[in-house]
Amino acid sequence: MYTLIVEDTSREGKILEMGTPEELIAAKGKYYKLVQIQTMAEQAEADKKEAERVEKLNRADATIFQTEKQLAELGDKIPADKKAPIEEALKNLKAAYEKKDADACEAANQALMTAFQAASAEMYNAQAQAGPQPGADFTSGAQGGTQNGGNSNQGAAEDVDFEEVK
């Protein structure tokens, strides 16, 4: 058994409380308040870590959903040599998510993003090399063409006066 002494250093070392930890906590004085503050700080830190863990898991869940959706929509547009790493990374992310391992989810999520980015770059380059699609006219009206009866200001912004009615 030991005795704690709580001093107020701003008042030349005046003793404010003295007793065992249990007695001081029961008295709900200065020592009690210090213990409460320390407990709240520890709880806040634990809450912050839990929020970060949940955020990582939520991000993984959203990535799984979005990747599955994109794979279904893009189908055979993704080159086979790029699709296999995406599917493998997706499988790893799902496994980490099922285990609720936030750190593994974060690493697997990054690997999936890297694999998908490589496939996206290749699809973009292939589309750029193919040129514009048939029937797509990107220049109509862009060179000052006069469609719609010679109105070349179509879609242009114009300043107008207005009055607010209450």
Question: What does this entry look like structurally?
Answer:
With 166 residues, the protein is mostly helical. It has a single domain, classed as Substrate Binding Domain Of Dnak, Chain:A, Domain 2 (Up-down Bundle), CATH 1.20.1270.10. Helices cover 60% and strands 7% of the residues. It is built from four helices and two strands; from the N terminus they run E-E-H-H-H-H. The protein has helices spanning 21-27, 30-74, 80-98, 102-130, and strands at residues 4-8, 14-19. It has a two-stranded antiparallel sheet with strand order 1-2. Helix 1 (21-27) crosses helix 2, helix 2 packs parallel to helix 4 and helix 3 packs antiparallel against helix 4 (102-130). The chain is elongated. The N and C termini lie far apart (77 Å). Residues 140-149 have low confidence and may be disordered.
Note the topology.
Elements (H helix, E strand, L loop, with lengths): L3 E5 L5 E6 L1 H7 L2 H45 L5 H19 L3 H29 L36
Antiparallel strand pairs: 1-2
Helix pairs in contact: 1-2, 2-3, 2-4, 3-4
Overview features:
7% strand; Substrate Binding Domain Of Dnak, Chain:A, Domain 2; 2 strands; 60% helix; mainly alpha; 4 helices; two-stranded antiparallel sheet
Mean pLDDT: 82
The CATH first-level class comes to Mainly Alpha
Number of strands: 2
What would the principal axes of the Cα set say about the shape?
elongated
The helix/strand order is EEHHHH
The proportion of residues in beta strands is: 5-15%
What is the rounded distance between the termini? 77 Å
Given helix and strand content, the structural type is mainly alpha
What does the main sheet amount to? Answer: 2 strands, antiparallel
CATH topology descriptor: Substrate Binding Domain Of Dnak, Chain:A, Domain 2
Rg measurement, Å: 33 Å
In the predicted model, the low-confidence regions spanning at least 5 consecutive residues are: 140-149
Helical content (DSSP H or I, runs of 4+): 55-70%
Based on the structure given, which CATH architecture is correct? Up-down Bundle
Q: Kindly report the spatial arrangement of strands forming the biggest sheet.
A: 1-2
Helix count equals 4
